[in-house]
Design brief:
Order of helices and strands: EEEEEHH
Strand order of the largest sheet: 1-2-3-4-5
Structural class: alpha+beta
Mean pLDDT: 88
Number of helices: 2
Number of domains: 1
Strand content: 35-45%
Length: 98
């Protein structure tokens, strides 16, 4: 249950969004700054091959939540609520990043 933001590369931060011992599927919040200076949040899935663990390419919010619903509908709803609260608190806004 390590839900702490960790810098995984220069300027790229990750934190588990979904990890369970009894499920091979895992998902992470990915936070970084893009070229226009805005900070963005995306998702990545965790992929373990032998002893090596890596993260997938970033996944947009809707696609990531649809993937997570297949594993844990309540957790997906909780994450959507969290993101909605960020938006309502005027701490962020949602738009497509090209």
């Amino acid at each position: 249950d390590n839900e702490e933001l960790v810098e995984i590369s220069d300027g790229i931060w990750a934190m588990p969004a979904y990890m369970k011992d009894d499920d091979d599927f895992s998902m992470f919040f990915i936070i970084t700054e893009i070229d226009d200076g805005h900070t963005v949040l995306a998702f990545s899935t965790g992929e373990k091959k032998g002893e090596q663990f890596s993260l997938s390419n970033p996944i947009i919010t809707g696609e990531a939540l649809n993937m997570l619903v297949k594993h844990d509908k309540d957790r997906a709803a909780s994450i959507l609520h969290f993101l909605d609260q960020i938006s309502k608190a005027d701490e962020g806004n949602w738009r497509m990043v090209e």
